[in-house]
Amino acid sequence: MHITFAKIAVPKQGAAVIGVAEGGKLGPAAAKLDKQVHGTLSRAMKAAEFTGKREKTLVIVSPAGSKLDRVILVGLGSVKTLDATAAERIGASIYDAVSKDTGVTVLLEGGGFEAGAVAAHFAGGMVLKSYRFTKYLTKESKDSKPKLKSVEVQSDAPADAKKRYVAVEAVCDGVFFTRDVITEPPNIIYPESFVARAKELAKDGIKVEALGEAAMKKLGMGALLGVGQGSRKESQVLVLRWDGAKNKSDAPLAIVGKGVTFDTGGISLKPPAGMWDMKWDMGGAGVVVGLMRALARRKAPVNVVGLCGLVENMPDGNAQRPGDVVTSMSGQTIEVLNTDAEGRLVLADVLWYAQQRFKPKAIVDLATLTGAIIAALSDHYAGIFSNNDELSNKLIAAGQAVSERLWRLPMGDEYDRDLKSPIADMKNIGGPRAGSITAAQFLQRFIKDVPWAHLDIAGVVWNEKPTALAPGGGTGYGVRLLNRFIADNYEK
Ligand code: BES
Ligand code: MN
Ligand code: ZN
Question: What is the distance between the alpha carbons of residues 239 and 208, in angstroms, rounded to a whole number?
């Protein structure tokens, strides 16, 4: 989709999207449309009770008195609350209505708000909603294919819009990269092929490095290696570095992702129904690679290191058994009572490695860690657990701002006690209650005096149904959130 920005003009042909602020009056340029069209639109708005409510649309086909094929009126809502995220959602809300046109003009009139930001983010929202994953469809019907090639967004500040769109587009690229790796089937994306895919990031200016099993053995990553030992695929730790800060030796921020490319549960095998969902058990790692692309493409002035623990959790003659005791890189021993609680074992070693090697100023991990977080929050919020109120509040605020919401859950010794094992330093599962919290407690045992937050994203990585900014499938949740968190708190 080719996006351009232009000054307000009166669209004369093709399809036009016209933004209408709450109250339901056409702006001055739209009012300059041929008198008769203006009358047609006003009548249609009245007849359909269209009042400019945010994200509501009204399609008028070949309006009488004009050469326009179609006019799509879209509600902007109250101009006072029209910020970047609102604009994004409004852009996304009209995508389906125009996807069968080859080109479209968007008329965004009105003062009182940041016209350039609104135009840029409106375009970004359209792009995010236009995501498709069709590479394995050999027969796609012509009708289902979108035709939209070019979008011209008209506003009072086209130059500003164009400038801002550079960063917006970078984030869209990141979200698409995340959705791509999440959607790929598990025979295509496994630890080594994930690494190969991530090597594309070198072109964006990111340093890409991977550790194989021999290197991990030397480091003593017994927890991660135990998870991968039942798989034919070699486990990997992926390390991505973006050193965008003026001072390249500034301590980085570390973002760590769970990358279980398929989770059968191992010997504690999952039931067959729905097991296919476990292809997106690498969703945390998917966010890490997409975020790194976004940061690099918008040349963010910040040092960030992204790490992914990549393994496949399979049952096999060599798989780990319930009851095995493994030694993590930290030296702490773990009794593995349930091989399906594998994400925490992977993260234990990658979190430790991240701290040892990079001395980060803060660590954020993302993981599709527990089914229990879905029971608690559904797909409306991801869970956040943290040892630091300030870090936690910053993440929650960023999530609120981009509408990828986080809800904080408690931590404490009373939960930690559930991890006691009679024969090792801990077991890898708690009791039947508060499963997301005991999982977080487990992770915290591998954090040493550094602000840390854990995001349990099991409920938000994938959504069968379309969401505000995605057509259904991988959502890319987390990329916009962390991008905003970094932009607001760590740049310059
Ligand atoms: N990957 C799963 C969690 C999950 C479940 C993600 C559903 C997305 C959708 C994780 O590895 C897992 O199996 N967790 C277990 C932990 C339990 C054995 C303590 C769970 O949540 O049941
Ligand atoms: Mn599991
Ligand atoms: Zn898992």
Answer: 6
Which CATH number do you get for residue 220? 3.40.630.10
Return the ∠ at Cα 119 (arms to 115 and 125), rounded to 5°: 140
* Cα 399 to middle of ligand 3, angstroms: 24
Q: Is residue 166 part of a domain?
A: no
Residue at 164 is within a domain: no
Q: How far is CA 42 from CA 35, 45, 78, 462, in A?
A: 11, 5, 19, 40
Atom of ligand 1 nearest to the CA of 439: 19
Segment 375-379 long-range contacts (CB within 8 Å, at least 24 positions apart): 376/409, 376/436, 377/407, 377/459, 378/459, 379/459, 379/460, 379/463
The residue with tokens 């008195």 is 65
Assigned domain for 162 exists: no
Residue 195 Cα to ligand 3 midpoint, Å, equals 19
Tokens of 449: 């005096």
Q: Whose CA is closest to atom 7 on ligand 1?
A: 371
Listed residues 156, 181, 197: the one ending a domain? 156
Residues with C-beta less than 6 Å from any ligand 1 atom: 263, 277, 281, 338, 340-343, 368, 370-372, 429, 435, 458
Q: Higher-confidence residue: 40 or 266?
A: 266
Cα(412) to centroid of ligand 3, in Å? 23
For 101-148, write each residue's pLDDT tens digit. Answer: 999 999 998 755 689 999 999 999 999 999 999 999 999 888 889 999
- pLDDT at residue 212 greater than cutoff 60: yes
Per-residue pLDDT at 34 exceeds 80? no
CATH code at position 14: 3.40.220.10
183 and 240 in a common domain? yes
pLDDT of residue 352: 99
Nearest residue (CA) to ligand 1, atom 13: 340
Q: Best substitution site from 277, 370, 461 to test ligand 1's pocket, by max atoms within 8 Å of Cβ?
A: 370
Pick the atom of ligand 1 nearest to 268's CA. 18
Q: Which domain holds residue 145?
A: 2-156
Q: Which of 156, 185, 214 is the last residue of a domain?
A: 156
151 and 81 both lie in a single domain: yes
Report the atom number in ligand 1 closest to the C-alpha of 368: 6
- Going by alpha carbons, the residue nearest to atom 5 of ligand 1 is 371
The predicted-structure confidence for 147-196, as pLDDT tens digits, reads as follows 999 999 999 999 999 999 999 999 999 999 999 999 999 999 999 999 99
